[in-house]
Amino acid sequence: MRPEELLCPTPDGLWCPLGGFHIDPVRPVARALITHGHADHARPGHQAVMATRETLRIMAERYGAGFAGSEAVAPLGEAMRIGDVTVSFHAAGHVLGSAQIAVEAKGMRIVASGDYKRRRDPTCAPFEPVQCDVFITEATFGLPVFRHPDDTNEIHKLLASLAAFPERAHLVGAYALGKAQRVIKRLREEGYDRTIYIHGALERLCRLYAEEGIDLGPLEQATVEAGRKSGSGVDFAGAVVVGPPSAFADRWARRFPDPVSCFASGWMSIRQRAKQRGVELPLIISDHCDWAELTETIAEISPAEVWVTHGREEALVRWCELAGIRARPLHMVGYEDEAE
Ligand SMILES: [Zn+2]
């Protein structure tokens, strides 16, 4: 059997004809297997959805109960029969509930990794390498120039700025699912125990993380009233305020006097991007692999073939070929990598 007969890239997403399902489809389909809760991978309107328990919770939180005709929980590591194939979900280390999906038939196994990273993240289970014939990977940061620093450095930069500017609020832009909770949790691990203020859009996901056992410490919504009692005379003076990147362009951000604008993203390693966004304190914290993590992961799994879904595909395909691994770019569209 050719691998394309087991899993086939289509404009709707990866399609498994033997199992009758799509993985992370970009349009509503009959049966969808979902790797994780980010909006570009987990869309509403499918007839049947299978995902980890946490991802199903995240989808229900974002889209409302009844976001799909039916839901099935995929426990990590458990082999399940769908049509003529066996599927299993394995931790991806990207955000809470994120999973790789292994699809197997007639002695061939393909792993669709979704989004993943290899760094420690106290808010989700670590990536599990799964042996396979074909490994499907993204390449958001698939160029040798991308080397994400240790996130401890970045959290310490934020703490140092708080100490240096105790009269200014520190506004931290962070993607609402995963990044925001990881930044908050890492601040707690580094000893920051004051109330952290959050944008309303983060409230429900932060509560969901807390209910899943990830203690984020004292959080409060960054309302006008909260601001009044937060500082000594000045609203939110010396406070950490976390919000989704989109909130920083609207009126919400103007309630903070003379804020230090921070943004937590893998893209912050590009100085010009930070400048364009008016970011004073870039924090290079990524939920994706950098170049070394991508190539080390492929070397560790050592598949016969690699498919690269999206991102900077050509460099990674070339690296695979030089390493003696067959590789092809899939040029899949609909998977957004800018916000993370
Ligand atoms: Zn993602």
From TrEMBL:
Descriptive protein name: Ligase-associated DNA damage response exonuclease
This protein's UniProt keywords: Exonuclease, Hydrolase, Ligase, Nuclease
Organism in which the protein naturally occurs: Kaistia nematophila
Keyword Lyase included in the entry's annotation: no
Annotated EC: 3.1.-.-
UniProt GO MF annotations: exonuclease activity; ligase activity; RNA endonuclease activity
Ligase is among the record's keywords: yes
